[in-house]
C-alpha cells in the first residue's frame, strides 16, 4: 500500500519504518530540511534499538523515502498518517495547532480519496475537528480515523511489529477495511485489531497512560509507607503482582515516572476533564505524588552528607528518563541535579546515551565523565537515577576504593540489601530498609 507519514518524530519515524518493513511504499514528510537530508542519507535521528537496521534495509529497498514537501507526500499516500507533536500548552492541555494546520493543508490539497489517520495522542473530539477542518476545503472524499500508538521508547520497533493490540477508531466501513488490511501482517499471532468509535479510541490512549502512571504512583506511595513502618516494598510488590488481576508489570517503585508521554498525558486528561466539568481527583493526586517522588532521595543525601552538600562531590549514574533511550524529557534526574546544584554540590555524571542531551541543557555546570567509574572517582556519594543494565553489577570493590564515602542512593532499587551490607556500603533505596 502507499503510505505517507507526516511528522518524523519518534512515533512517525518508527511507524513509517515499520510499515515499510512489511512491503508498503512509505514517504515521510517533515518541515525540518536538515533532518530530512540526514534521513535521506541513511542517518537515524534518534536512538532506538533495532531501528537503524530496518531503516537502512528499507531505504536501500526504495520503500522508505523522505521529503520536506507536503504536496509530494499527499500525492503519494492513500493512507496519510498524522504523527505530529501535541505539546503541553501553558494550561496543561494538548496544543493541537500542528495537527489542525496540517489538516487544513490536506483539505486544500487532496485530489483523490484518502484515509487520514490520527496517530498523535490527541484529546477526545480531535478526529471530529480534523474532519471538519479538512471538509471545509476538500474537493474529494476522505475519512478520518483515530489510531493511537502504544509504543514504549526503547522497545518501539518490537512494540510496533508485535503489538498486543491495535486500536482503530473509525465510523467508516471503507476506512476500517483499509486499516485492517494495513495492520493484518502485524497481528498474525491472533492479537486483536479493536474497532471502536473515534472518541473512544482517543480516550483509550489517555486512559491507558493515566492508568499506568497511577499504577506506578500507587506503588511509590506504598514504598514511602514501607519506609515508615519497616516493610520491604520489593517483597510487597512480588506478593501483590502474582495476583493476575494486578499483574507483575509496572509495579516498580522509584523516583517517579518521566518521559515525553506520562507527565504530559496525565495533565492533559486532567485538564480535558475539568474543561468538561469533570474533576479527575485521582489524577490530581498522581501528579502531586509524582512531583514529590522525583526528589524523595534528596533529604536522605543531605542528611548523610552532614546536612550540607555544598562543595561535596556527588556522582550520578543514569540521566535518561529510563534505560535504552537518550530521551531526557521530564527525567527525574533533571530534578535531582537542579536541586543538588542549587545547594552547591559538584556533580559528576554518566549515562550511556543521554550525555549529549544533558550537555545541551546543563552546559558547564556539570562534570561529564567518560565512564561510570570516572564519575565515582573521589565522590562523597553515588546517586542512581536510571536502571541501565551496566549499573546492575558494578565492581563494588573498585567503587569502594574510589569513593571518599562509600554511600549509594539508589532511585531504582538495583541492589540486594544484604549484598550492600556485606560489600560495606551505606545504602539508601526506595521503600526498603534504610
Ligand atoms: C509510555 C507507555 O508505556 C507506552 O505504552 C505509550 O505508547 C507511550 O508512553 C506513549 O504515550 O507514547 P514510555 O514513555 O516510552 O511509554 O515509557 P515507559 O516504559 O512506559 O516508562 C514511563 C515512565 O515510568 C519511566 O519514567 C519509567 O521509569 C517509569 N516506570 C515504569 C516506573 O517508575 N515504574 C515502573 O514499574 C514502570
UniProtKB/TrEMBL annotation:
- What positions does UniProt annotate as the active site of this protein? 261 (nucleophile)
- Print the keywords alphabetically: NAD, Oxidoreductase
The molecule here is called UDP-glucose 6-dehydrogenase
Q: Where does NAD(+) bind?
A: 30, 35, 86, 121, 153, 264, 329
Q: Which organism is it from?
A: Ulvibacter antarcticus
| Gene Ontology terms for molecular function | NAD binding; UDP-glucose 6-dehydrogenase activity
**Enzyme class label:** oxidoreductase
Task: Say if the entry is tagged with keyword Disulfide bond.
Answer: no
Listed binding positions for substrate are: 150-153, 205, 250-254, 258, 322
Sorted alphabetically, which Pfam families does this protein's record hold? UDPG_MGDP_dh (PF00984), UDPG_MGDP_dh_C (PF03720), UDPG_MGDP_dh_N (PF03721)
Q: What protein family is recorded?
A: Belongs to the UDP-glucose/GDP-mannose dehydrogenase family.
EC nos: 1.1.1.22
Amino acid at each position: 500500500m502507499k503510505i505517507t507519514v507526516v511528522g518524523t518524530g519518534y512515533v512517525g519515524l518508527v511507524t513509517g519504518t515499520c510499515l515499510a518493513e512489511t512491503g508498503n511504499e512509505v514517504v515521510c514528510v517533515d518541515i525540518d530540511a536538515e533532518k530530512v537530508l540526514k534521513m535521506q542519507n541513511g542517518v537515524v535521528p534518534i536512538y532506538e534499538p533495532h531501528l537503524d537496521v530496518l531503516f537502512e534495509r528499507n531505504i536501500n529497498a526504495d520503500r522508505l523515502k523522505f521529503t520536506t514537501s507536503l504536496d509530494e507526500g499527499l500525492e503519494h499516500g492513500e493512507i496519510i498518517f498524522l504523527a505530529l507533536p501535541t505539546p503541553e500548552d501553558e494550561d496543561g492541555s494538548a496544543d493541537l495547532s500542528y495537527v489542525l494546520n496540517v489538516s487544513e493543508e490536506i483539505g486544500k490539497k487532496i485530489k483523490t480519496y484518502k484515509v487520514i489517520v490520527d496517530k498523535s495522542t490527541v484529546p477526545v473530539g480531535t478526529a471530529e475537528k480534523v474532519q471538519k477542518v479538512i471538509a471545509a476545503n476538500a474537493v474529494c472524499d476522505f475519512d478520518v480515523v483515530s489510531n493511537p500508538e502504544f509504543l514504549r521508547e526503547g522497545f518501539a520497533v518490537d512494540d510496533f511489529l508485535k503489538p498486543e493490540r491495535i486500536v482503530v477508531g473509525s465510523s467508516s466501513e471503507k476506512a476500517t477495511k483499509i486499516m485492517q488490511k494495513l495492520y493484518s501482517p502485524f497481528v498474525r499471532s491472533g492479537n486483536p485489531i479493536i474497532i471502536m468509535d473515534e472518541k473512544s479510541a482517543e480516550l483509550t490512549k489517555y486512559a491507558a497512560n493515566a492508568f499506568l502512571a497511577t499504577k506506578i504512583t500507587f506503588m511509590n506511595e506504598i514504598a514511602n509507607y514501607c519506609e515508615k513502618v519497616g516493610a520491604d516494598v520489593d517483597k510487597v510488590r512480588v506478593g501483590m503482582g502474582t495476583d493476575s488481576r494486578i499483574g507483575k508489570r509496572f509495579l516498580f517503585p522509584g523516583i517517579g515516572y518521566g518521559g515525553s508521554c506520562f507527565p504530559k498525558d496525565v495533565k492533559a486528561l486532567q485538564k480535558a476533564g475539568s474543561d468538561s466539568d469533570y474533576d479527575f481527583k485521582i489524577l490530581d493526586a498522581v501528579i502531586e505524588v509524582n512531583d514529590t517522588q522525583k526528589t524523595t532521595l534528596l533529604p536522605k543525601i543531605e542528611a548523610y552528607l552532614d546536612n550540607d552538600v555544598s562543595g561535596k562531590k556527588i556522582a550520578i549514574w543514569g540521566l535518561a528518563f529510563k534505560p535504552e533511550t537518550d530521551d531526557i524529557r521530564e527525567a527525574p534526574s533533571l530534578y535531582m541535579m537542579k536541586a543538588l546544584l542549587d545547594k552547591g554540590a559538584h556533580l559528576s555524571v554518566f549515562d550511556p546515551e543521554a550525555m549529549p542531551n544533558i550537555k545541551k541543557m546543563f552546559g558547564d555546570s556539570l562534570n561529564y565523565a567518560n565512564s561510570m567509574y570516572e564519575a565515582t572517582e573521589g565522590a562523597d556519594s553515588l546517586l542512581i537515577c536510571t536502571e541501565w543494565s551496566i549499573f546492575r553489577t558494578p565492581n563494588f570493590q573498585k567503587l569502594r576504593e574510589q569513593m571518599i564515602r562509600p554511600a549509594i542512593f539508589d532511585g531504582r532499587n538495583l541492589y540486594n540489601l544484604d549484598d550492600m551490607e556485606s560489600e560495606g556500603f551505606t545504602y539508601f533505596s526506595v521503600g526498603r530498609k534504610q
